[in-house]
Amino acid sequence: KMAADTSVDILQKVLENEILQSTKVVEEHLDAEIQKLDQMDEDELERLKQRRLEALKKNQQQKQEWLSKGHGEYREIPSERDFFQEVKESKNVVCHFYRDTTFRCQIMDKHLTVLAKKHIETKFLKLNAEKSPFLCERLRIKVIPTLALIKDGKTQDYVVGFTDLGNTDDFTTETLEWRLGCADVINYSGNLMDPPFQSQKKYGTSFTKLDKKTIRGKIYDSDSDDD
């Protein structure tokens, strides 16, 4: 018993020492930063201030430019012709090919509405698949919903049904955000190696297997059970 107590004491002391050491490093770093600022003359401080202001101004201008191009909201575009125009003027575009009668499209809409407001660096669009047969054929869209993920005018990736989103109708907005981050079509700040739906599994979320149905080139709903 005493030996066990002793080893616990030693461990505690080691830990305390570690904490003290890391605190000391942080304090020293802060001291150095403060000293650096103290040693700066008026001109250097002024230049630093100017650089910060310019960066802020540039960010603001970039934001305004995005908003003027229709970023910041999830919009429906009326036709295939609009699709080409919209894609041409923005670096990052997410386009949801949907159908009114497909329940899973409404689930996708809910998450995309949230993400469009959060990620104004990317344009979020939706297009009725039934009104865009040429595009659906060209982009080989067979299952609804499908998201086309477009960078610099080229379709780089697709999110087909909910297969990549944990295979469940209850996927979170964070899961879709992670998937778009994997395609580098949004600025993703989380860890790409740690998909959010993995933590869902821990809490026993029920997963439903999705069916992908494509027969003779026809477009099928990912939530339909009939042939």
From TrEMBL:
The gene is Txndc9. CDD domains: Phd_like_TxnDC9 (cd02989). Keywords: Cytoplasm, Cytoskeleton, Nucleus, Phosphoprotein. This is Thioredoxin domain-containing protein 9. It comes from Motacilla alba. Significantly diminishes the chaperonin TCP1 complex ATPase activity, thus negatively impacts protein folding, including that of actin or tubulin. The keyword Aminoacyl-tRNA synthetase does not apply. GO terms for cellular component: centrosome; cytoplasm; midbody; nucleus. Residues 80-163 form the Thioredoxin domain. It is found in: Cytoplasm, Cytoskeleton, Microtubule organizing center, Centrosome; Midbody; Nucleus. Forms ternary complexes with the chaperonin TCP1 complex, spanning the cylindrical chaperonin cavity and contacting at least 2 subunits. Pfam families: Thioredoxin.
